[in-house]
Amino acid sequence: MEGGKDGVVAMQRAVKQLHFGECDDVKVTAVAEIKRLAASDPRRKRLLAALGVIPPLVSMLLQAQDDRRRQLVVETLIELAHGTFKNKALTVEAGLLLRLPQLMNTEDLPKNQHLTALLLSLSFLAKTTFPINPSPMLPCLIRILDATETSEEMKVTCVAALYNISTKLDNVRAVVSSGAVPVLLKSSQKMRSVAEGALATLGNLMLCETGKKAVEEDAIVPEALMEIMAWEEEPKCQELAAYVLMALAHRSKVQRKKMAELGIVPLLLEVALMGSPLARKRAIKMLQWFKEEGRARTGGHSGPRPDHLSDGRQQIREGKRAVNTMVKQSLDKNMQAIIRRARASEDFSCFKSLAATSSSKSLPY
């Protein structure tokens, strides 16, 4: 540990001032020293937490009257939590999340980058067995993400926190109830820098029926997702949008009908030919669904129907049906040909990759 005995003395003095300081200025000085000590040596983070600095820091955060002091306390809590789940858990146990509504009333949330970073740090607890309740955190994150004055960097941080929370299936209902789905969809459509994280979060939510229903019922679905799937220069977003669309289309004739009416088949054909390997795979799978559905609709009607009516209008209707059937069959054949080309293209790209990484000596000729 850096500093040896001097470091230990400095740590003891700072902790004593934090606990028993007679005035705010002394405590603020102690907080600054604790921040410095925590940043200088990872082992000191655990020692400082063991000496009980986290609960008084949380209390100071709520009692501080000016932004400068609040920022210092938040930065210190971030430093203490960085790299140690134990200190993150201690921060939650000290009641920070339960008191977030107080901070939401006093803070200019869309501009509080440090508080957002602290929430991101605490959100990693959702990936552990620690029983964190995300409900107090979610309104704060949604409010920051949805605010027009929030910086791009803060929006990315909020989405990362929401993603962490959504990785635990037990949290999905709380995330959906917080109103996250429309905000995530809107953010992914409007800001490409947050789209990947937002779509990944939506993908997690789709694993639960509650989340899937919330996405299905949003007014901009599936148009927004189809728009994102057309982003050729953003392959990861394209893949994630295709995944969400697949989840929506699976076993849902209503969603497939909406997608077909909006022209998803030509888009899928384009992705199947030009997208990333994973996007192509997902597009081909969806094309297969639409092809089978089209075949089911036209099944049994490929030949002429017996006509027992002499009414001319009835014959016209039958003729129209026959023409429509032939058109659908032709489209089906074209789709099969394009799917075969896409699969061949995918196989060829794999071969090229193999050839590029192999030496000439490994080739048989």
TrEMBL record:
Residues of the U-box domain: 25-291
Top-level taxon in the UniProt lineage: Eukaryota
Compositional bias of kind Basic and acidic residues: 304-314
Record SUPFAM superfamilies: ARM repeat
Any Pfam family matching the protein: ARM_PUB
Alphabetized InterPro entries for the sequence: ARM-like, ARM-type_fold, ARM_PUB, Armadillo
Disordered: annotated span: 295-314
Gene3D superfamilies assigned to the protein according to its UniProt record, in alphabetical order: Leucine-rich Repeat Variant
Residue windows of the ARM repeats: 136-180
PANTHER family: ARM REPEAT SUPERFAMILY PROTEIN (PTHR46700)
Protein's recorded name: (wild Malaysian banana) hypothetical protein
Organism (species): Musa acuminata subsp. malaccensis (Wild banana)
